Amino acid sequence: MESAAGNLYNQFQSLRAQVDGLNEGIEPQFLQLAVNFEECRKKWLRSGEELVSCKEMLTKAETERGALEVKLKHARNQVDVEIRRRQKAEAVYEKLERQLELIRELLVSENNGNSVHLNEEQRSALAFLSAHSQAAQAAKSNLNSSRRLNTIDESASLLSDISYDQTDDSLDWDTSTMKTVRLRKRQKRVSHASTQIVFSCINDFVNESVVAKTTITVPVNGGAVEAVSTIETVPYWTRSRKKTPSTPVSDFPAQMQTPKPKGGKKHHFVSKTVIKSEFCVPCGKRTKFGKMYLRCQDCRAVTHPECRERCPLPCNPNAFSTPIKNTEATLADFAPATSPKIPALVIYCIKEIEHRGLHEIGLYRISGHERMVKELKEKLIRGKTLPPLNKVEDINVITGVLKDFLRNLPEPLLTFHLNKAFMEAAEIQDDDNSLAVLYQTISELPEPNRDTLACLMIHLQKVSQSVDTKMDVNNLARVFGPTLVGHAVPDPDPMTILHDTNRQPRVIERLLSIPTNYWSQFAYPDSTAMDSAHHSVTPDRKVSMLGPVTTPEHQMMAKTPSSTSLSQRMITIKCFKIKDIQHYSGIERLWYIVSPYLREFKDFTNISSSLKF
Amino acid sequence: MPEQSNDYRVVVFGAGGVGKSSLVLRFVKGTFRDTYIPTVEDTYRQVISCDKSVCTLQITDTTGSHQFPAMQRLSISKGHAFILVYSITSRQSLEELKPIYQQVLAIKGSTESIPIMLVGNKSDEMAQREVETKEGEAQATAWKCAFMETSAKTNSNVKELFQELLALEKKRDMSLSIDGKRSGKQKRADKLKGKCSVM
């Protein structure tokens, strides 16, 4: 028993000793373990935080990348536009070249034929022209020579090579080249233009002679462009002295005006004697029996001679010459064959609405008298002459005509097949992406639809900015949604109608948020490219549509009016038709040459134009 | 859209800006907003009493700014009763109702059993009045429909308008008030109360 107890006791003792041993060792170890755990925890925490911050950086980078991609897309679009513009400009350049050549030949041949000694002025003109033609020849023969457009060639080829996966660095690099190209181009232009161009014309009549001279000076340092015109006649040919100098531009007989190119915006007026009284388009008054009036041969607009400058532009040749059935005619049938392909009806209505409708409450919301709308539309589409819109008392009739015209097209303006694309583009939440897709979709529109849409959008932006109408962007979008966007099929079922009606305004809202100058390139292609002087409003508004990437052309327009006038001159020279010139002689022919310049120069205040007799 | 036979559909027509939405909102919500927002199409629902039971009055507020024949035909064929609104400040707005009335007549066959109200809205703007009350009445007589001048702004005759419209319906016995009958809402409220008392 005792031994057992002793045994047990021993066992107990040994157990205790073991426990003690264990207890002694374990505490510091345990502490160590705890410390280790604590350290481990801290490490985890730190790496966790790092992970979070890394993730944040990643998302930031992602969004940046997205934004840059959109910019890249915009830049690419812009480049495409520029390339197209360049091609156009080149075509114009070549045409001009040819025409200069023709003028030169004319001068040479005329002198030979008449066997009259070359006058001094004539000689200088000839010298200029032949020098020019030689230069042009040289430029053609040597591609690396100073032919102006080569620089643009380079830039275009560089930029059009941007591929989709290029990095930000390359984009930066591209824009920088674009800038330098722009500078170079500008320098070239100025240097090229820093010369005195003298146009002169002499004619010897039986007993009098007319000497006329126009000198255009463009200084190298970019100073004021000067134009001096002199017309000298011997005393007794009074008629020419009296008539032409006093009213150099506006009152000149219509035949003498330079016929503008086919694609142009100008009217081609011929003067006639009034037999049947008609309404003058600009002033709305009747033409009086037996007096002279002007009629545009292309669009049949009628005007008093003194109102011709105010005649609405552009001229739309086709629109009124072919009466068409409204129900079947598509937009393209109404639009002229040359850009901007905007139906005349749209332009005339918009002109009138902007003229007196911008203070009307509920413009486009309130509808006009149905019968009057129908009648006016009928007259505009089918009539031989333009009904004077300022005689229409209720502006809502005119808005009604415009809406009715657009609504009853066999296909909505945004077309059936792009309907879905537009709706989906407008519903993209991210503004930039949405706009990028919209730009893409707009570029897929047929030209007449695109140009007309552009014209309308510019107009509606004006309306929305006019507080008096109470028609902000949302309201206009609600009214025009069904009219412009329509449905994807010709005869939608009721459910589609209901569903689409709620989605349509969003598209218009998005389209209205696109800057005006984007639309202007379609609605006024001539004016944005070369003709900004005639629309003095546009340059003020020019905000680059694509933010960082600036277009060389726009910059030039805004900053250097002198080069603008130069580019304009290119256009006007282009219009010379040699055979037309041959029909007139003496002072008339001179005016043929001089009048376009005077007309464009009067837009610039820094140009002094003087006439001496 | 499932066809609910119990619904009574009223469609409001009229030119743009005559106050169709204002009338409907005044009636449904009791409010008047001075904003200027064109309607695309809105539908409001209100519980009313009909043949001694409850039914939904469905008011469709249409668009006046652009007439789309397809949509108009749809609204007319679905509608049971019509409110034709013009503004007493615009003769043109009364003129514009004529083709709409003709359309209703063409789709419904005859308008005799169909409740139609001709409404001259904006009766508060007496200074700008272009259409005399008598002219509105004459038009209503020609169309064999009821006539009323209202003002959504001053809440004049708005409730009366809808009351009279419902009174014109001879096929059903309808009224705006739902006393004696409990609406769904009230029933639900009672149920909730009952549960509370148990707890």
UniProtKB/TrEMBL annotation, chain A:
Pfam families: C1_1 (PF00130), RhoGAP (PF00620). The keyword Lipoprotein does not apply. Keywords: Acetylation, Cell cycle, Cell division, Cell membrane, Coiled coil, Cytoplasm, Cytoplasmic vesicle, Cytoskeleton, Developmental protein, Differentiation, GTPase activation, Ion transport, Isopeptide bond, Lipid-binding, Membrane, Metal-binding, Nucleus, Phosphoprotein, Spermatogenesis, Transport, Ubl conjugation, Zinc, Zinc-finger. PROSITE patterns: RHOGAP, ZF_DAG_PE_2. Residues 329-519 form the Rho-GAP domain. The keyword Cell membrane applies. It comes from the Eukaryota. SMART domains: RhoGAP. One of its GO terms (cellular component) is cleavage furrow. CDD domains: C1_MgcRacGAP, RhoGAP_MgcRacGAP. SUPFAM superfamilies: Cysteine-rich domain (SSF57889), GTPase activation domain, GAP (SSF48350). It is found in: Cell membrane; Cleavage furrow; Cytoplasm, Cytoskeleton, Spindle; Cytoplasmic vesicle, Secretory vesicle, Acrosome. GO terms for molecular function: GTPase activator activity; lipid binding; zinc ion binding. Residues 58-113 form a coiled coil. One of its GO terms (biological process) is mitotic cytokinesis. InterPro entries: C1-like_sf (IPR046349), PKC_DAG/PE (IPR002219), Rho_GTPase_activation_prot (IPR008936), RhoGAP_dom (IPR000198). Residues 266-315 form the Phorbol-ester/DAG-type domain. Gene3D superfamilies: 3.30.60.20, Rho GTPase activation protein. Residues 241-266 are annotated as: Disordered. Signal peptide: none annotated. It is a peripheral membrane protein. PANTHER family: RAC GTPASE-ACTIVATING PROTEIN 1 (PTHR46199:SF5). This is Rac GTPase-activating protein 1. The gene is RACGAP1.
UniProtKB/TrEMBL annotation, chain B:
It comes from Anabas testudineus (Climbing perch). This is Uncharacterized protein. Transmembrane segments: none annotated. PROSITE patterns: RAB, RAS, RHO. It comes from the Eukaryota. Displays low GTPase activity and exists predominantly in the GTP-bound form. Belongs to the small GTPase superfamily. Di-Ras family. InterPro entries: P-loop_NTPase, Small_GTP-bd, Small_GTPase, Small_GTPase_Ras-type. One of its GO terms (molecular function) is GTP binding. Keywords: Cell membrane, GTP-binding, Lipoprotein, Membrane, Methylation, Nucleotide-binding, Prenylation. The keyword Cytoplasm does not apply. It holds the Pfam family Ras. It is found in: Cell membrane. One of its GO terms (biological process) is signal transduction. Its main location: membrane. PANTHER family: RAS, DI-RAS, AND RHEB FAMILY MEMBERS OF SMALL GTPASE SUPERFAMILY. Residues 177-193 have a biased composition (Basic and acidic residues). Residues 177-199 are annotated as: Disordered. It is a lipid-anchor. One of its GO terms (cellular component) is plasma membrane. Gene3D superfamilies: P-loop containing nucleotide triphosphate hydrolases.
